[in-house]
Design goal:
The protein is α+β, with helices and mostly antiparallel strands. The chain folds into two domains: 209 residues, Beta Barrel (Thrombin, subunit H); 96 residues, Pdz3 Domain, CATH 2.30.42.10. The protein has five helices and 22 strands. A hairpin with a 4-residue loop joins strand 5 and strand 6.
Length: 310
């Protein structure tokens, strides 16, 4: 009986802890009404008064957006900026008043096996919640929407309809990440809070995420072992440039057709995904180093990435 009693006490304590976390998180989780069907969720983000972060795919209209606050009152909101590649949109409340904002978990606090909760508020009344554990922590990856993100969190929580844009929280009600159902082709993925904050800041500053580009067309090519040994390279392949856009950053830097790109910004480049990840770490308008093979020799060339779409 004592073992059963102890077990019951532990489960009861855990149950109460999870319930308290949901209650605390519910103070900063809002309803976002920006599409015709089911409303979605959003987070009162600690980036300034009245800032709401949600999933980009739930913002189907850019006018007439309404946010329902935890207390039930409806407030109109304006779209500040959106980034489809990361599935993040930022809204600003017209009359924010004094609202509690989310407490963000430290970037290194999430561990595989930790209990987490997905919180959603897709309609009136109390929020909804599901819970599970963090099952995977990943590094840089290309999303199903074409963006490159520094990292991701996968948790075995159910994302019900309207949960996208809401938070993944730990047992202290701190935001570990922002939930999205669209980023991984219908699988539950959360964008870590630190990554979200970086994107939010960019959207607040310029209304968009500035993405670097070189202006090249490339394809993977194997590096012969003898050449790799001669040049001190450990990678099996690089990217041969088969096109250089006239007037592009690559053209201005002097990159040529036939050059084999093996590194950018001190990151090894073996394929197009490596190149995109390396570009994601660069700053638009700031010179960085491209390492190439030209005529059987290794060369370093300074190249200044431009802004894609500019």
């Amino acid at each position: 009986m004592s073992d059963q009693s102890n077990t019951g006490g532990v489960l009861n304590a855990l149950s109460n802890e999870l319930s308290t976390a949901v209650e605390r998180a519910s103070q900063y989780v809002v309803t976002v009404e920006a599409r015709r069907q089911v409303a979605a969720s959003g987070i009162l983000w600690p980036a300034g008064p009245g800032i709401v972060v949600t999933a980009d795919h739930v913002v189907e209209r850019e006018e007439g957006i309404t946010v329902r606050l935890p207390g039930g009152q409806k407030v109109s909101a304006a779209l500040v900026g959106r980034d489809p590649g990361s599935d993040i949109a930022v809204l600003r409340l017209a009359n924010p008043g004094t609202q509690p904002t989310a407490d963000l978990a430290p970037s290194d606090s999430a561990k595989i096996g930790h209990l987490v909760l997905a919180i959603g508020r897709p309609g009136e009344g109390a929020p909804m919640a599901t819970f599970g554990i963090i099952s995977a922590l990943g590094g840089s990856w290309r999303t199903a929407r074409g963006g490159i993100l520094d990292s991701y969190i996968r948790a075995d929580v159910a994302l019900f309809s309207g949960f996208s844009g809401g938070p993944l929280v730990d047992t202290q009600a701190r935001v570990v990440g922002l939930n999205s159902w669209h980023l991984a082709g219908g699988q539950e993925i959360a964008i870590p809070a630190a990554v979200v904050s970086k994107i939010v800041q960019s959207l607040l500053t310029s209304g968009r995420v500035r993405r670097a580009y070189l202006g090249v067309t490339s394809q993977p090519v194997a590096i012969p072992d003898s050449l790799a040994q001669k040049l001190g390279l450990s990678q099996p392949s690089g990217l041969v440039l088969v096109g250089v856009e006239p007037g592009s950053p690559a053209d201005q830097a002097g990159l040529l057709l036939g050059d084999v790109l093996v590194a950018l910004a001190n990151q090894i480049v073996t394929d197009s995904d490596d190149l995109q990840r390396a570009l994601a770490s660069t700053t638009v308008g700031t010179a960085t180093t491209a390492t190439i093979i030209r005529g059987g020799e290794k060369k370093s060339i300074a190249v200044t990435p431009g802004e894609r779409g500019s």
